[in-house]
Amino acid sequence: MVQQHRIYVVQFDKGEPDHEELSCKASPPKGGGRRIMYYYHDYGTGGAAGKNGKPAKGRALSLSGFFGLLLICLFGLATLLAAPGAFFSFARTGGAAAATQQQQSERCSGIGNDTLCCDRSSRRADMCFARGDLRMHSASASFQLVSSAGRPAVEEEERIRPYTRKWEAHVMKTIDEVRFHRVSAGDAARCDVRHDMPAVLLSTGGFTGNVYHEFNDGLLPMFVTAGHLQRRVVFVIVEYHDWWMTKYGDVVSRLSAFPPIDFTADRRVHCFPEVIAGLRIHGELTVDPAKTPEGRSIRDFRRLLDDAYRPRINYLERMERKAARKQRRASGAAATKLALPNKHLAAPAERPKLVIVSRTGSRVIENEEELKALAADVGFDVRVVRPERSTEMCKIYRDLNASDAMVGVHGAAMTHFLFMRPGKVFIQVVPLGTDWAANEYYGEPAARLGLRYVGYKILPEESSLAREYPAGHPVLTDPAGVAQRGWDVTKKVYLDRQNVRLDLARFREELVAAHRYLVAGKRKGRPKSRALAM
């Protein structure tokens, strides 16, 4: 049974009183501050369960169980007498610390209690690991590690900007820096809220606002870093945005069972047994099973998306069915009778569903209506999707999860291939000058997800640039050479000023091949997917 819980988080602006507590009630909290509604879904049975979801019955302790329990107690007593510090350190951090250790690099592997370590060896992101008595002190943009041995002999401090684009200095300068430093118990801030699970510190600044970066730099690294903690983790977010949580709260709630903390606005002192600062990233829109504690892959992330969006999709579909029934009743019995199909006629074969992801601004398919008619003529049931900033993500997910094929021009919206089921077809239209990026950012990741990827590279005459530059111009014939003049030139010419007019006869070949593949898969079982490039 799916239970939906509504949590209201009261977040206070700077200077407001901080004595209000987090409200986990079904009614809105009292007091000032801005209120954020945060939903999460609990897919458990609510307790121990036996077969068929029934409560498990208690069982008397057997003789062998008694001696086993006695042996464990004797072992624990011996450990306590031999090394009491290590014993209490283990008891304090629990299984979460052991699981987190798998996420730590060789540089910081095996850190003990009362320890701070940073790994700055990766080109993509820095990470810091702290274990012990950690206290979030947002007023000084820091976490305090309370020393267990009185006043620290030497000052220990680390600073980090918890964002996953370390190599882009101009972006990293915009990310707030957080300080970790050791303090004595007498100098430590008093705890207002205590947590018995680790925190993960991250930023939703930088390129957030672009759907590619929201997944590549944020959600996927969050999955890689915290997915193994089984939702017993608290996300502490620097550059927190209400709209980001509104957009991705369903996904975040599948990674954490607790509301995230706005690092800047929440001035209460939150205390944790462990903090992971920064996120681990494996590559472009990917999860490397060899680098995750449980061997998880990009398909596991996609299953998480399905868990996140399924309850909302089910609700929308119930509302749609209810509206349809109401409309049928309003139309009258006579109209309904006329609409009934002839039961003696065979039902038409289901046509593969194709979604065209439409763009506005630049890299527009100028003959999109003709493309839509062509795809229908080939045998597809065609739907055009135009993602907007305000479009609810679960609605886009529903369209693409139900589709058999997706067609779109290279750009951030191609990130939505993550919403497709393995074995389906993804055709990316590759404008001039975008070959490398189209394959690196979307083509190869799509193939790793198990999609049949087709990169349709347009010819110069299919580009709107052919109307601006004479035949033989390097912009048309040598995009790689033009790209050597720098990213600014590439962006201005090939990304911001280029549209596409498809050669429909040429593109028809790709649609026919995709249709045959999909139909054959339904008849004989899905053939092994593979990536193609034209």
Automatic annotation (TrEMBL):
Signal peptide: none annotated. It is found in: Golgi apparatus membrane. Residues 330-426 form the Glycosyltransferase 61 catalytic domain. It is a single-pass type II membrane protein. InterPro entries: Glyco_transf_61_cat, Glycosyltransferase_61. Its main location: Golgi. Keywords: Glycoprotein, Glycosyltransferase, Golgi apparatus, Membrane, Transferase, Transmembrane, Transmembrane helix. The keyword Transmembrane applies. The chain crosses the membrane at residues 60-83. GO terms for molecular function: glycosyltransferase activity; pentosyltransferase activity. GO terms for cellular component: Golgi membrane. Pathway: Glycan metabolism. This is Glycosyltransferase 61 catalytic domain-containing protein. It comes from Triticum aestivum (Wheat). The lineage of its organism: Eukaryota, Viridiplantae, Streptophyta, Embryophyta, Tracheophyta.
